[in-house]
Specification:
With 155 residues, this protein is α/β, with parallel strands linked by helices. It is 21% helix and 22% strand.
């Protein structure tokens, strides 16, 4: 095995005369993935590179990002490098992005703001939808609203 199993961080090759070179590459990879905050999410056109900036590449990238769909991109030493990240916080929109298989989904953040919390009694119990009363339906809707708030989809 030449890299770590979960994050593909390169190990220092055995019998290396200068172990610092391999170790520095690994530290750079850890730096790219640790506490991952990105400048933008799901853009397809690479911005003008700013040292250390990270971005989630969109599904149809162009230019220097071509062929790197849904990867994490970082600009370092005047070049883009890419990794398969699983979670990132976008500074631009304040949303958390999670990668499932090869696509990203956004959770929480300001996209669902402005909701006024419902009041009353919530009811998660089962009932017959075809004969539900208005009260049962409104209690069910309130229970769903609270679950959506708890998940951070609306705030």
């Amino acid at each position: 095995m030449t890299s770590s199993i979960n994050n593909a961080i390169e190990f220092v090759p055995q019998n290396t005369t200068d172990p610092a070179s391999g170790l520095n590459l690994s530290i750079n990879q850890i730096d790219m993935l640790l506490q991952c905050a990105v400048t933008s999410a799901l853009a397809n056109t690479p911005p003008t590179g700013v040292e250390g900036e990270r971005h989630i590449v969109g599904p149809a990238p162009t230019g220097a990002w071509a062929g790197k769909a849904n990867k994490l991109a970082r600009y370092l030493n005047a070049a883009w490098t890419f990794a398969d990240a699983r979670i990132a916080l976008s500074i631009a929109d304040g949303r958390l992005y999670l990668r499932q298989a090869t696509t990203w989904a956004a959770f929480g953040g300001p996209a669902g703001t402005g909701w006024t919390a419902g009041t009353g009694t919530e009811n998660k119990a089962a009932y017959a939808a075809d004969t539900a009363t208005l009260l049962q339906t409104s209690q069910r809707v309130l229970a769903l609203e609270k679950a959506i708030r708890l998940a951070g989809i609306i705030v």
